[in-house]
Structures are given as C-alpha cells and as structure tokens.
Amino acid sequence: MSTTTRTHGPGRGRERGQGRGQGRGRGERGPLASIGLHAGLLLAVAVSLFPVVWLVLTSLKPRDSWLSAELRLFDHSSLDNYVRVLSATEFPRWLLNSVLAAGLTMLGGVFLAATTGYAVSRFRFPGHRSVMWLLLITQMFPVAILIVPLYNLMAGLGLLNQIPGLVIAYMTISVPFCAWMMKSYFDTVPVEIDQAAMVDGLTPFGTFWRVALPLARPGIAVTAFYCFMTAWGEVGYATVFMSQEDKRTLGVGLQQFVGQHWSDWGLMTASAVLIAIPAGAVFLLVQRHLVTGLTAGATKS
Amino acid sequence: MAVSTGRVAAAGEGARGRHDRPGRLRRALSAHWYAWAMIAPVVVVMAVLIGWPLARGVYLSLTDATEANIGRTIGVNVIPATYEFVGLDNYLRILTSGLFWDKLAWTVVWTVVCVGLHYGIGLGLAVMLNRRLRFRSVYRVLLILPWAVPAFVAAFVWRYLYNSDYGVINGLLKAAGLPAVGWLDDPTTAKIAVIAVNVWIGVPFMMVAMLGGLQSIPAELYEAAEVDGANAWQRFRAITLPGLRQVSSTVILLGTIWTFNMFPIIFLVTRGGPGSETEILVTYAFREAFTGVRNYAGSAAWGVIILLMLVVLAIGYRRTLRSQGDPW
C-alpha cells in the first residue's frame, strides 16, 4: 500500500531507455504526455486549493473589506477578525462544546468499533455476514427518520441541550462505519500472529487485547480521528438538539454569522479557518493510514 | 481469509483443551461465543439507538403527530399525547403530491450526477497519480485537502464564493468582462452550485480509494499486456477496470447512499432555496419536522419512504454484484 515505493523520477527511466538506444522504454511517456499530465494535475490542485486559499486570505482582510467586490489579494492584512471571533462572540464556547461532543463520540465509537471489527475480521461465525450488512444498512438511515424519534426520546430523558444526548445521537452515525474501518485494519494484521498468541495460551479476548489491538494502533488512531471528524462536522442533529445559545456546537453557531438578513463574512471566514486548520493539519498527518484503512478491506477480501 | 479463521477457532478450542464431543448447538456456541460476545455491544447499541427510534419512527409515520399534540412535560405539568393512529394517510398524501415526485426527481439527478462526477474525476486523478511522476506526493496531499475541510465549513466557504455581490466567482467573471451571475438565486445555477460544492468535497475520497485499488493491481499484469502489444486504452479496459471492481462497487454504493442523504451541503449552502428548488428528500423531511408547525408524522413518513428506497437500491445492487460473482 505504501505509495513511496516507486519514487524514481521519470528522468531516470528515460535515460536508461535511451542509453540502450531503444527510444522510450516500456511504461515511459514522451515529454508531451508528461506536460499534459502535470497540467492536468496542476489544474486539479488549483481547483482543490482555491476555496481554502481564498478563505484564509479573506479572513486576514480588515473588517469590512469583504464588502468590496474588487479582487485584492492582500490589503492591510490583519488578525482583526480573529480577535473579534475569539473575544466578542460565543465562538470559544461553541468550540468547547464541539470538542466535548466529538471527543466523547470518539471514545465510545472506537471502543465499540474495535471489538466488532476484530470479531468480524477474524471469526467466521454464524451471522457474521449479516452483521456487516446490518452496519452498512445503518449507513443508509437518513437524518429524517431517526431525528424525530430520537428528539422525542431525548426530550423524554431530559437530554435535549445536553452534550451526552448529542453524543448518543452521533454514535448512531459513527459506529457502523468505524466498525467497517476497523475490520479493514484487522484484515491487514497477519492471522498467524493471532494463532501464535493462542498457541502460547492466550484466550481469544487476550489475543485481541494484548496482540491484535496494539498491532492495529495506527488503525485505531485513524478510526478515532474519523469518529471525531464525523461528530465535528455534523450539523443536522446539533441544530435540532442544541437550541440553547450556550450549548451550540460550531456547526450550529456559525450559522449565526451568516444569517438570512445579516452576514459577517469576516467573522465567518476567521472562524472557519480556526476550525479547518487544526483539523486539516491532523488530517494530513493521518491520511496515509486513512487510505490504507479504507481500501485494504475492499481490495483484499 | 475464511480458511485461516477456521484455524484460529480450532486453535482457540485446542488451547482450552476440549476432550468431550458436544452437540452441534453447543459446538457452535463454544466455537463462536467470543465472537458473539465481541459484537454484542454494537448489536445492543444499534438496537437501542437505531432499532428503537426506527420502530417509533415507523409508528409515528402512521399517526397524525405534530408539535401540538405530541405530549410533553412543561415544568411539573405533563400534557398527555393526543395524536391518533391514521393508518397510511401520511404516505398516501405524500405519494399523491407532485412535490414528492419533484423532490425525488431532483434527488435522483443530484445523486447520479454527483456520484458520476466523483467516480469519474476520482478515477481520472488516481490514474494520473499512479504513474511515475515528479512531485507525486505533493500533488497527492494537495488534492486530498478538500477532504480535510469539515463539510459545514466547506458549505460556508462556498456560500461566500458564490455570493452575488462580494463573491470571488462573480469577481472573476466581472474582471473577465462578463456579467455577474446570481448563483444561488436562480434554480438552475443554484443546482449547479450545490453539485459543484459536493463534487469538490467528495472527489478526494474517491481518488484515494481508487489509488489504493490501483496499487493493489500487480504491475506484472501491465508488463505482460505491454509485451503482448496492448495499448494504453486496452490496458485500462482489460486490467485497470476489472482490477478496481471490488473497490469500485464498494465506494459507489457508499457514495450513492451518502450523496442521497447529504444533508449539510444543501442545508447550509442554499437552505433548499430558491423556494425549495434545491431541496433534496432528506432536507425536505428535516424542514417538515423542524420548521413552522412541526409535522412529526409527515416527516417520519418521508423518512420511511427514503429509507425504503435506499434499502431496495442496496439489495438490488448487492444482488447484481453477487450474480457477477462478487463475495458480497
């Protein structure tokens, strides 16, 4: 799965081919194709980066300069918007709520997903297929069908405007997919290791806890991260369950900055950067593992 | 995988030193009890958090429950629920309304176009990235970036980009001497706009999944095909596409379900507007339940219909894959 195994530049291969006097070697391409390839990728990179770059640039503009339709990249750059977001709005409060909700979802989600993923990956027990199928089916649940009963349930239990209530709702979204991801990871851990551990006298649970779990550590990190991001980016449940001002999460709170009648893009962009940058940084750190986890199961089976 | 796991189970039994020959049920129980114990938490959580609300949702969809009659507790006063069972009325009303079919048509267009573009662009980029290439990992990281942006942040950012007065897209159009477009004010452009946002967000996932799939295809196959004189297109058709089947079928099904239910993009970028032109089934059902007089029963009925459609889709899809020999 490593992507760095084939790092020869195109140049080297071509030299070799020409050295033997055969023109282009197998799998090599002409300069024109290379230019086309790079042009295509550069275009794609431009599209993928532009909104993010523009977001950062706007957030650095002075308070009202987003009101001008002129395209200026830098224009009295300042951290004004950031200061305003952090000091004059409820942003820090929302941030705390979001971190709490996402963090708790992550803990519960990983615990449940790890055991399920392991069982489904290692044991062919009756019902194994239906469990995976059940998990996939729950991915299909639209917000609309669960949200009303869940809302009533939460209201009945007094969990509206409570972080735990939100966490419970988030588990319904994150656990199924995370179980799939954990299964993929456990599939990549050689079964022989488990067998050796069992021969040495560990119980199946002992094997899971002491052998498989430590080996799947990168997988757990990624699953945890994915859980966190799911909760972090959720809007539907949060909008309905957390109506109280001081209980809002970021996704709900930010809607205030760009309402129907009044928008402050300065506040919005600054807070968007504050939310996206840390998440993006961690994401880029774990993305290599994320790739493995998502595809290993699908490509192997 | 299936073969080796049998051995694990056998090893587990051996380790516990069994000598007796129990009956079939007991054998199954003793061979599988730990597997069942390990999935029990998830099954229980799913049953409580999804099964129960689902059952109640289905029940609510057969009643006339609204905010007014649902029954609630205000302080110490308990107001009992007064809604009644009305059978399939809600479903009849929805299925006979033009609105539902309008929304369904747009939701299908939205899903097909989005997933098609996700898959096509993702596969294209993955194939490009799977070559020997200078700056390969740089391209890869930069192309994954949109995935790292939380959906609601992306929605707000794009709303700003689309803004008709201050948005940079119109700014660029004006700079090029073209008239500004009221992106989110016109049904057609608003639809294009939300699709563009969703494609922007969704392509990295597809690209990454495809890249993983491509790297699992043995290079020898390509070498052999080249020796046999197959051109690039033939190699793509005969090796790449079949090699990606497993990954493709998974991500297309997941992508379809996710897109069909994609809530935040539409909810936050256009709020379903203009009018309710960009509203997909899910956002409409949400709006039904939580704006104006909250029509819980109606919303639940919409939800049940959406779910049924997806289940039918998934079962059909699974059947097709199975008949083609995939181990689903």
TrEMBL record, chain A:
<keyword id="KW-0762">Sugar transport</keyword>
<protein>
    <submittedName>
        <fullName>Arabinogalactan oligomer/maltooligosaccharide transport system permease protein</fullName>
    </submittedName>
</protein>
<dbReference type="Pfam" id="PF00528">
    <property type="entry name" value="BPD_transp_1"/>
</dbReference>
<keyword id="KW-0472">Membrane</keyword>
<feature type="region of interest" description="Disordered">
    <location>
        <begin position="1"/>
        <end position="28"/>
    </location>
</feature>
<keyword id="KW-1003">Cell membrane</keyword>
<feature type="transmembrane region" description="Helical">
    <location>
        <begin position="163"/>
        <end position="182"/>
    </location>
</feature>
<feature type="transmembrane region" description="Helical">
    <location>
        <begin position="131"/>
        <end position="151"/>
    </location>
</feature>
<comment type="similarity">
    <text>Belongs to the binding-protein-dependent transport system permease family. MalFG subfamily.</text>
</comment>
<dbReference type="InterPro" id="IPR050901">
    <property type="entry name" value="BP-dep_ABC_trans_perm"/>
</dbReference>
<dbReference type="InterPro" id="IPR035906">
    <property type="entry name" value="MetI-like_sf"/>
</dbReference>
<keyword id="KW-0813">Transport</keyword>
<feature type="transmembrane region" description="Helical">
    <location>
        <begin position="262"/>
        <end position="286"/>
    </location>
</feature>
<keyword id="KW-1133">Transmembrane helix</keyword>
<dbReference type="InterPro" id="IPR000515">
    <property type="entry name" value="MetI-like"/>
</dbReference>
<feature type="transmembrane region" description="Helical">
    <location>
        <begin position="32"/>
        <end position="57"/>
    </location>
</feature>
<feature type="transmembrane region" description="Helical">
    <location>
        <begin position="94"/>
        <end position="119"/>
    </location>
</feature>
<feature type="domain" description="ABC transmembrane type-1">
    <location>
        <begin position="95"/>
        <end position="286"/>
    </location>
</feature>
<feature type="transmembrane region" description="Helical">
    <location>
        <begin position="220"/>
        <end position="242"/>
    </location>
</feature>
<keyword id="KW-0812">Transmembrane</keyword>
Automatic annotation (TrEMBL), chain B:
<keyword id="KW-0813">Transport</keyword>
<keyword id="KW-1133">Transmembrane helix</keyword>
<keyword id="KW-0812">Transmembrane</keyword>
<feature type="transmembrane region" description="Helical">
    <location>
        <begin position="33"/>
        <end position="55"/>
    </location>
</feature>
<feature type="domain" description="ABC transmembrane type-1">
    <location>
        <begin position="104"/>
        <end position="317"/>
    </location>
</feature>
<keyword id="KW-0472">Membrane</keyword>
<dbReference type="InterPro" id="IPR050809">
    <property type="entry name" value="UgpAE/MalFG_permease"/>
</dbReference>
<feature type="region of interest" description="Disordered">
    <location>
        <begin position="1"/>
        <end position="20"/>
    </location>
</feature>
<feature type="transmembrane region" description="Helical">
    <location>
        <begin position="296"/>
        <end position="317"/>
    </location>
</feature>
<dbReference type="InterPro" id="IPR000515">
    <property type="entry name" value="MetI-like"/>
</dbReference>
<feature type="transmembrane region" description="Helical">
    <location>
        <begin position="104"/>
        <end position="129"/>
    </location>
</feature>
<keyword id="KW-1003">Cell membrane</keyword>
<comment type="similarity">
    <text>Belongs to the binding-protein-dependent transport system permease family.</text>
</comment>
<protein>
    <submittedName>
        <fullName>Arabinogalactan oligomer/maltooligosaccharide transport system permease protein</fullName>
    </submittedName>
</protein>
<dbReference type="Pfam" id="PF00528">
    <property type="entry name" value="BPD_transp_1"/>
</dbReference>
<dbReference type="InterPro" id="IPR035906">
    <property type="entry name" value="MetI-like_sf"/>
</dbReference>
<feature type="transmembrane region" description="Helical">
    <location>
        <begin position="251"/>
        <end position="269"/>
    </location>
</feature>
<feature type="transmembrane region" description="Helical">
    <location>
        <begin position="141"/>
        <end position="161"/>
    </location>
</feature>
<feature type="transmembrane region" description="Helical">
    <location>
        <begin position="192"/>
        <end position="214"/>
    </location>
</feature>
<feature type="compositionally biased region" description="Low complexity">
    <location>
        <begin position="1"/>
        <end position="13"/>
    </location>
</feature>
